[in-house]
Amino acid sequence: MNLQSMTGFARAVAEHDGTSIAWEVKSVNGKSVEVRLRLPQGLERLEPAVRQTVQKRFARGNFQATLTVGRAAGQQAQPVVNEAFLRDLAGLAKRLQEQFGAAPATADGLLSLRGVLEIPETAETEEARAALDSAILSTLEVALGGLEQARQGEGAALRSLLSDHIDSIEALTLRAEADPSREPAVIRERITEQVRLLMDASANLDASRLHMEAAFLATKADIREEIDRLKTHVASGRVLLAGGGAIGRKLDFLAQEFNRESNTLCSKSNAAAITAIGLELKAVVDQFREQVQNLE
């Protein structure tokens, strides 16, 4: 299955019985499917169907869908002016101008007042309304198809980036595993040197006890478990990327696991080389997690 980003834009237009229909849809990152709509007055009835259509098609994202409907000249209702109300308002405006010096009223200002200019709804049969609704929803499907393609195009690029990050995590894990500082002889030499320095600092210290404590700390600092878990997470990440689909949440959890192991690697390290690898690993994991935030 294809991966999808959560960002994209698409537009679709159509015509139905002299009425132009245009949908613009866009999406950005979101924890779930959230839909904001802008519908022309009188078409609010479509809101439940539009929301359901988007929710069926996508798993995550904040969506904004804008519908524009333009009716042909023959279908547009003629505006009706309430002339009596307009005369009253014009007279009131003139008195305010004469008595209080108010600015003179303008025609467009008066016509914009509620109740002066009205556009009656055109008579529409149930069959015509249902046909128009069907055409609008069909055009929405086209727009959502375009949005899905846009999200998949960015998802393909993200798949490549995430795969590269996983390869880098694996390479750093193998470097840590093979680092000479983890060799038993090197660890033994480092412990011996630390004990010698402590004994030189104080003759009252028990050498055997110091060796026991140093051996315990060396065992505690072993990173074998972290390396094994990192390898397991790398394999899981590749399986998820190969499977595709809505895996954003799963990869986000995996990124948290990568981050946890890299932090532990740094905290347990008793060699500068392992610490350097751990810090480099954290940087790659941060990039991985940032990219994952864009996936559906």
Topology:
Layout: E1 8-16, E2 19-28, E3 33-38, H1 47-57, E4 61-71, E5 80-81, H2 83-100, H3 107-111, E6 117-118, H4 126-178, H5 184-201, H6 207-220, H7 224-243, H8 248-268, H9 272-292
Parallel strand pairs: 3-4
Antiparallel strand pairs: 1-2, 2-4, 5-6
Helix pairs in contact: 1-4, 4-7, 4-9, 5-6, 7-8, 8-9
Summarize the structure.
By secondary structure, the protein is α+β, with helices and mostly antiparallel strands. It contains nine helices and six strands. Helix 4 (126-178) packs antiparallel against helix 7.
Write up what this structure looks like.
With 296 residues, the protein is of the alpha+beta class. Helix content is 61%, strand content 14%. It contains 9 helices and 6 strands. It has helices at residues 47-57, 83-100, 107-111, 126-178, 184-201, 207-220, 224-243, 248-268, 272-292, and strands at 8-16, 19-28, 33-38, 61-71, 80-81, 117-118. The strands form 2 sheets. A 4-stranded mixed β-sheet has the order 1-2-4-3, covered by helices on one side. Strands 5-6 form a two-stranded antiparallel ribbon. Helix 4 runs antiparallel to helix 7 (224-243), helix 5 packs across helix 6 and helix 8 runs antiparallel to helix 9. The chain starts with 7 loop residues before the first strand and ends with a helix. 20% of the residues are buried. The model has no long low-confidence stretch (mean pLDDT 87).
